[in-house]
């Protein structure tokens, strides 16, 4: 048996310092809720040559609620998936969970537009932006900032047909953040035997005792 008696006898792979340096910088910028799960997916992406789940820069505030979506995380998803076209829901879930985001939030977003099998990326970005903003105008501003091809800090222009399509989509949907008078009921049995999240609104005038159910 060969025993190690001194530091010079320990072999350090030449690429290890740079790999660890890049990983630490990525973890600090991204601030994932579940560092261990995020790290596993990060190295999986690096090994496979895929775009890793890393923010461009540190986001403030870091997060309102652990595992919640933020504009920074949405930027990462766009960077991984692209701005146009379609993506399979399985791939979207993989990227979403790779960022250690709350699965129930994604369930609710996909349920709003009844996506099954594949998702229009631009429409998903718009719905996700609506989940982050309180007004339609604020949502469209964020959508333009997310989908623009211009440098950061520019005018954030997007093609007019995109804007019109996404504006109409959002105007027809209630994709804002959940209100206090709403209850999210998980694992509702829907037709075709599928289990999904469904949003139930409590009618106005219901007593506080029932709202606290």
Automatic annotation (TrEMBL):
This protein's UniProt keywords: Cell projection, Cilium, Flagellum
Main localization, broad class: other
Coiled coil: none
Listed GO CC annotations: motile cilium
Keyword Signal among record annotations: no
Statement: the UniProt record of this protein carries the keyword Cytoplasm: no
SUPFAM superfamilies recorded: Dimerization-anchoring domain of cAMP-dependent PK regulatory subunit
Subcellular location: Cell projection, Cilium, Flagellum
Annotated family: Belongs to the ropporin family.
Protein name, per record: Ropporin-1-like protein
């Amino acid at each position: 048996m060969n025993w190690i008696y001194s530091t010079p006898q320990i072999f350090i792979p030449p690429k290890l310092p740079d790999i660890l340096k890049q990983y630490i910088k990525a973890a600090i910028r991204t601030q994932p809720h579940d560092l261990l799960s995020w790290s596993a997916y990060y190295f999986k992406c690096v090994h496979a040559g895929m775009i890793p789940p890393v923010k461009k820069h540190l986001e403030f505030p870091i997060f309102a609620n652990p595992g919640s979506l933020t504009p920074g995380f949405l930027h990462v998803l766009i960077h991984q998936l692209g701005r146009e076209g379609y993506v399979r829901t399985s791939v979207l879930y993989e990227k979403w969970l790779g960022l250690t985001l709350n699965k129930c939030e994604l369930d609710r977003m996909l349920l709003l537009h009844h996506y099954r099998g594949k998702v229009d990326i631009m429409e998903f970005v718009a719905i996700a932006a609506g989940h982050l903003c309180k007004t339609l105008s604020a949502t469209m501003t964020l959508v333009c900032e997310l989908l623009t091809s211009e440098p950061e800090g520019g005018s954030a222009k997007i093609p007019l047909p995109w804007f019109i399509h996404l504006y109409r989509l959002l105007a027809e949907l209630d994709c804002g953040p959940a209100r206090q008078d709403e209850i999210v009921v998980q694992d509702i049995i829907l037709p075709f035997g599928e289990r999904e999240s469904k949003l139930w609104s409590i009618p106005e005038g219901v007593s506080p005792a029932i709202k606290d159910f």
